[in-house]
Amino acid sequence: MNIAVLVSGRGTNLQAIIDAVESGYIKANISVVISSQKDALAIQRTREHGIEAIFIDPQDFWKDKEHKEEKRVEYDKKIIAELEKRNVDLVILAGYMLMLSPYFVEKYKNKIMNIHPALLPSFPGVNAQKQALDHGVKYTGATVHFVDSKMDHGPIIIQDIVPVYDDDTEETLSNRILEKEHKIYVEAVKLFVEGKLRVEGRRVKILK
Ligand code: GRF
Fold it and tell me: What pTM, to 2 d.p., does this model score?
């Protein structure tokens, strides 16, 4: 099974997946890592492990504001071309900051995963940890889900909870959530690779 990881930033979730593949816990191949940011730390991490990393510049496609939707599809088609070259079976979004076009999502239906630092459907979008603190919830968490065309919305694969403490800051809470993210993302990818996920509508059943 061939995996591609899409990133934009520091890549700690990517690192957790690389480590799980290298140790043999996930029996798959990371074929390519694609970044929307030229200097993303995630690119460096990837190359350190001898994995191919490519930067595809969204600016080339987004200068034309009037045709934004068309340009977004054009950008995604560039990515898809790289995926097809490598027969990619699973696309993992790991801190990837761009929305995928419906074209991309449809083409890889139930084959794209994302991780979000909250218990969806609570606190979608950016700054999920701050949203949780501001709302005053006592528990938040992390969610791995399949991607559909709405943001942070598709069928949920795994969630785990994280307590919020009185003295938490955005940073301390984010760090506690991140530890959980790394665990559940690796588990979700492993289940996919082993063919143990079955999507039925919004529900994802985990086969024994
Ligand atoms: C994580 O908190 C993830 O949940 C969110 O973006 C962040 C990416 O962090 N989607 P990293 O690049 O994996 O370290």
Answer: 0.96
Q: Which of 13, 17, 99 to mutate to test the pocket of ligand 1 (most atoms within 8 A of CB)?
A: 13
Instruction: Give the helix/strand (H/E) hosting 69.
Output: helix 68-85
114-208 CATH choice from 2.60.40.420, 3.40.630.90, 3.40.50.170, 3.40.50.1000: 3.40.50.170
In sequence order, what DSSP letters do the residues of 164-193 get, joined into one string? --TT--HHHHHHHHHHHHHHHHHHHHHHHH
56-89 confidence digits (pLDDT tens): 999 877 777 778 888 999 999 999 999 999 999 9
- 1-108 belongs to which CATH class? alpha beta
Q: Where are the domains of the chain?
A: 1-108, 114-208
Ligand 1 mutation pick, 120, 127, 178, max ligand atoms within 8 A of CB: 178
Q: What is the pLDDT of residue 67?
A: 82
